[in-house]
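Table 4 source record.
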Amino acid sequence: MFTLSIPKLIEEIVVSKIKNRVLSITHQQDVDGLFCGAILKNAFPDTLVHLTNYGYNNMLQVSKTIEDSVSKSKKKGIVIISDLSIYDLKDVEPIEIAAGKAKESGWRFLWFDHHYWNEDIRKKVESFATLILAKDEEQKCASELICQALNIKRSACLRMAKLAHNVDFGLNEIKNPPPLPEIIRYYLTLPNAHKKLHSIVKKASKGVFWDDELQEVYERKYLPLKEASMEKAIGSLMIQNMHSYKVAIVESPQVLPKSVVAERIFELQKDVDLAILFAPDGKLSIRRKPNSDIKCDLIALRLNGGGHSYAADGIIKPLIDEGENTKVGIEDVIEELQKALKE
């Protein structure tokens, strides 16, 4: 799925290190996304990192960031988008327009991702960017793709890629890894979330993945919330038999990583096949039990989303109208899952 050869890309990036700016557009929700920005910041000092999430409004903001960077920069540059897949053609439009303007000023576009991509969306993105996707049989996170494709061999960058891989695929290959997923999740609940997340990127870009400041936050602010939030989540747990699956459904607290909640569910409910974690805005996280061959990404496709075989995200449109606030409840989730899980 490469529109340019890797050696050519490497050559161009090496040139960019000398005289071009790198604009990193990366996912803000997890270790892999933040480390993509940190790796680029480490390897290419003239790197500006923009953190974002999925959805049209976020892509609209990304397009404005691209336009601003191009208009303010006196140098040509490279936009590197990472750990962000697109599930709706509409979401591509703002980026496509911004890319067209940027290319007129000599800017180039690279896009790294390791999620499932719809064929039509992939072709649309490839019309303006070099899209580098992990092969289906490979287990590579976006951080690893960046290091591999751009021939980045700095020690801190390789350590970031290894840690991101360990976290993203739920492995235990690193002894006592820092609880960054939990800190990231906690920071995302704060009013100054972007500032806090950028502090993680800045530290990681210097090879610092954990320090006394993060430990203080973890012990004094996050841990007191963790057990109370987990207790509330498990208290809302509902088990449903849907077609050939036994499904655990829970409203997931905003402060807890989905992986942590799912892990607790599978510990408590050994015979459950799937854990579905939902938010009142309709966003869903789909997790399969360990050592299962259920394809979460295929289920997510039926729920307007995508992801990996072991974990994926979807969304259901809000179905409950409570005045000006529209929320999704557990009954709505069950109704949509009955359709999505039908063979």
